[in-house]
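Q:
My hope is that you can spare some time for a protein that puzzles me. I hope you can help me see how the letters and the C-alpha cells relate. Thank you; the sequence and its C-alpha cells follow:
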Amino acid sequence: MEYKQHVEELLKTNKERLYNMNKSKTAMSLVDILEDKLTNFSFDSDENFGYLLDVFDILGNIMKKEKDLRNQFYDRFASIHNIIASQLHTFRDDEDDPKLLWQYAMLKKIIFKMENTMLALYYNNPAEYDPSKEEFIYYIVFELKNINIFNNACIKFPHIVNSVNNDGIPLIEKVLDEYLNALKVYLSKENLGPLDDLIYYDKVMRLILKSEKVKISAEVKKFMLAKIKDFYKNAFYTSNRHKEKLSFFINDILNAIDGVPENKTIRYLNYKYEIHNVFKEAHNLEATMIAKTHNKIGDPTTMRKIYTFDGEGAKEIDDGLSIIYEDGIYHLGIHIADPGSYICPSSILMDEAIRRTTSIYMGNDCIPLFPSILSSNVMSLNVGKTTYCMSYYFDIDERTGEMLNFEIKNERCRIAGNLTYAKFDEILDQGSQDKDLFETILNLSNVSDILKGILNEDDIYREVHSSSDKTLSTSVVENAMIYANYNVAKLFSERDLPFIYRCHGMNEEDIKRLALLQERLRSDAHNDKMVKDIEVLKNIFPKAYYTRINKGHYGLGIDYYSHVTSPLRRLADNIANMCIKKFILGTYTKDDIERMSALIDEVSEAINSKRNSIDDYEIQYMHIKELKKQ
C-alpha cells in the first residue's frame, strides 16, 4: 500500500496514529489527498467528505512546530482554495435536491475550515489569536486598528469579515456604531476633537463596502442608513463649524454606502483631514511683522563654530552642532532653533501650530507648522546669520563616557556652515582645507558612539525603525539629538516639573510575544521571509506617544525621552521649549505649574489623536498627485 493510501485509510479509521508518523511525508500526503478529492469533487457523489475536515486539524498541529512546512504548503492551500471556490460557484441557488444541498453545505464547511487554517498560517505572528473564533476579526478591527491587516483580511478571508457576532449583528454594523461614536467625540470639543478614530472607521467602512467578496444585505444597508439619519437628526450644535463638519461626515458616509466614489481632490482631503494647507491673512501679517521686528537681533553670544547637517534641499534647518576637544574632554554643543524667542505663547501663530501639530512633508511639497517666512528664513539656522537658539552644552569624559557637566543656555548663535550629510561623509573620508570644519566633523564622529551608549535598543524596535540609507553622518546627528532629548527629559523628571515626554510602552504579554518572533528574526537573518516578518512587526509594534507622565521609552531602552530638537517642524518641541524657559531658565509659581500641566495635556492629546490621520493624508495626497501626472 502506498504511503498516501495508508494515510487516507488512517484518516478515516484511526487519525490519532497520524501524529506519530513522519511529519513531512504525512503532511505532504494529507495535502495531496485534499487536492485529489476536491479537484474531482462532484455534487452528485454519494461519498461523505466529512473526514476531510480533520485534515486541517492534523496539519495545523503538525505545522505549529514546523516553520518550513508552513511556508511550503501555504501556496498549495491557496491553489486548493481556488478549486473549492470554483466548485461552489457552479452550484445553482435554486437547487432543492437534499443530497446536492448536503454536499454543498459540506463543501462550504471545508472551505471555511481551510480559510481558518490559512489565516492561522498567514497571521503567524505574536497575536496568537485563534482564527476559528469570530473574536479574531474583532481583534483586528477594534483593538489592533491596523487598516493594512484588515484590508488583507477582506481580500483573503472574506468569510471572517462576513461573520456575525453572538447577537447576530454583522461586523459592518458594529463598525458604523464606532464611526458615529468617533464623530460624536470629534464634535465634542470647541476646536474639534481627535480625528484618528473617525478617519480609521471611515476607511474600514469603505473597505467593507467596496469588497466584492463581502456581502451586505439590502436590509442591513437600510438599517444603517436609518441609523445614520437618526444620528444626524438628533445631533445639535450651535457652532457653524461644527454643523458643517457634521453635515460633511454624515453625507460623506451616506455616499459611501450608496456606492458614490470619494471626491478625491486635495481640497476634499484638506477639509476631511483638518489640514490647513494655507495660513490665514492674520497669520501671514503677524509672521511678516515678526520677521521685520527680528530682522537684526544683534551679535552672537557664543563664539562656537556651529555647523548644520541635513539632507539635500532641506528648508527648515532647526539643529546645529559644535564641539571642542580638550584634555580628554569633549565639549559638545547642540544648538536648536528657538521659535519661542520670536513667537510669544499667546500668539495666534502658536494657536495655529496647536491645530496643525506638525509640518507635513509629501515629496517635494510641505505644509509647514509656521509660515515659511519664519520657519525657512528668520528662525531657520541659515549660514552667516545670527539666530536665537536654545543651546545644550555637555562636557563628556572621553575615557569613561561620563557626562561631567550639562548646561542649557538661551542665546544668539551664528551658523558657520550649512552642510549636507553627503558632504559630512566626504570630508570625513577625504579631509578639508577648513581646519575648524574638519576637526568638528572628526570630533563629532569620535564622540558619537559615546553618546549612543545611553541606549539599550530593543532588537526588534531597531529592525523596524532601521533606514536603508542611514550613513555615518546621519547616525552622528541622530545620536546627538537623542542624547539631548534624553538628558532634558531626565532633568525634568528628576526635578518633578511639568514636561512633555515622548514615551513608548509595551505590556509584558506583548514583550513575550515579540521575544518569540525575535528568535525567528535571528534564525532568518539571511532569508527573504525576514522581510515579511518585519512588515508584521510594523503592523503590531506600538507607536510612541506624547504625555505629561514619564513612562520611559521601551524601544530605545531608556528611562527618559522627549523631543526638543525639531521645533520648526514639531509642536511638541515648542512646548518642551516653553517648559525649559519657564522652569529651568526662569522663575515660576504654582499657577504656572498648573497652567503648563493643562497645556501639555491638551497638546499631547491633540498630537496623539491626529498622527495616524496625518500619515494617511500624506499617502492620499501623493496618490492624487501621481494620478494627476498620468
